[in-house]
Amino acid sequence: MAKTLPERPRAVLVGVQLPGVTDEAHAADLAELKRLVHTLGFDAVATLSQRRQRLATGTVLGSGKLKELAALTGGTGVIPSGAQGKASKAREKWEAEADANPEAGTEASGDTDVDAEEPSGEDDDAATDLDLEATAIEPGPKPTVVVVDHELSPGQLRNLERATGAQVLDRAGVIVDIFHRHAKSHEARMQVEIARLNYLAPRLRESSGGSERQQGRGSGDSAVELDRRKIRDRLAELREGLAAIQKDQDQRRYARRDQLRVALVGYTNAGKSSLMRALTGSAVLVADQLFATLDTTVRAMQPETRPRILVSDTVGFIQKLPHDLVASFRSTLDEALEASLLLYVVDASDPTWAAQLEVTRTVLREIGADVVPGRLIFNKVDRLDAAAREALSAAHPEAIQLSAHQPDDVAMLRKQVIAFFEASMVEADLVIPYARQARIGEVYEHTTVVSQAYDETGSRLRVRGLPGAIARLTRSFQE
Ligand SMILES: Nc1nc2c(ncn2[C@@H]2O[C@H](COP(=O)(O)OP(=O)(O)OP(=O)(O)O)[C@@H](O)[C@H]2O)c(=O)[nH]1
Ligand SMILES: [Mg+2]
Fold first, then answer.
1. I need a labelling partner for 198 at 20 to 30 A (CA). Which of 211, 301, 411, 447 fits?
2. Where would I find the Hflx-type G domain in this sequence (predicted)?
């Protein structure tokens, strides 16, 4: 779907293995970052990894490793001290204040700033820095992008850019950019723009052209301040627009409240959209990339049941999802909150599936959706051998194993979903007065009609449905 660009930018990945992070978890983190970077359209041509007690405050990496990184990208490997460094620190301080109080913080001056150069010793303890591997790089032009697997402060980001001469992105920045590219609906685009502006605002700086800088820092800061104000206005505008859309959706959701709803939730790339397609016959996007889906789609399960069962496809999760993004997709996830059944879709062929499931559970717990009944679905078992499948069912006998690509498996899942709803249904009698026969369709929409008889008051229906739906129908026909 994405156009192939003539030349993909080359990127170096940077990761620090902190105490308590196992080799496997660290490697999996970097492998996932590589996929994210690839989804964004870059080629990851080298990975620089270092074991440290903590992230270096100035540049994440120790000075030796930083030089190694700069050698790959053609940078100096040091953070220039002096005017530029000071200005940057001043801005950093000012921005930190502005973050704490968005309405204030224009008057900070650079006079009392310390040098931007990282204090030697403390963060550069050679004894605690271990090179995990020699840096191998694929042959070709010098990489122009550095992607760090940690959240960078605006100051760290700038220091790294100065030292490497490359464009620097952190993990959150990569994810925000992917969301920005993949958002399709008006709503998703607004949500992503809010997250993006929130992410970018503290990272704003004057253009590196130098003209502003020559005019003195004061004018540079006010240019930034102007941009900031624009961002604040735009954010207010977006929030207003979003609130209007969401009101609309709340109404639509309210209209669906009596329907049987099941939501597909899980880590990105687990196969949610594939299952959505298979269960509903809808043409939602399926792609071997991260965050292919950003919009919630709701479709009736096919072949259609009476009453219909609605299936929703939702945005995928990832570890270290930027907080703003989670917040902005909260309304999308309301879909999951309102479902009567959650299908936790797991890519069983991914060795890190358990950690991925934990991430999913954590986010859903945060929005309060953990009280919704759920079933664990091991997808992609076509990639497992018999022994692995057996081990999986021994450890998780309650889970459903399937492949979204296997029609028989999907038919079995459909039956299980129907059985779930059947189990929570009750039988009741509804009397529809002759004067209200025109609305009899509502009964068929929300319940299964077992039998129908007529008497002097109207038609008498024996129905099966969810207790809530039956209560509402009874009330509505009595009024
Ligand atoms: N082998 C195999 N591949 C599968 C299966 N289900 C999905 N896939 C593949 O996995 C990739 C991701 O599938 P999607 O359905 O887009 O995953 P998703 O969970 O919707 O991902 P996001 O929308 O990015 O969160 C695609 O390349 C699918 O073809 C399966 O059962 N077996
Ligand atoms: Mg999807």
1. 211
2. 260-425
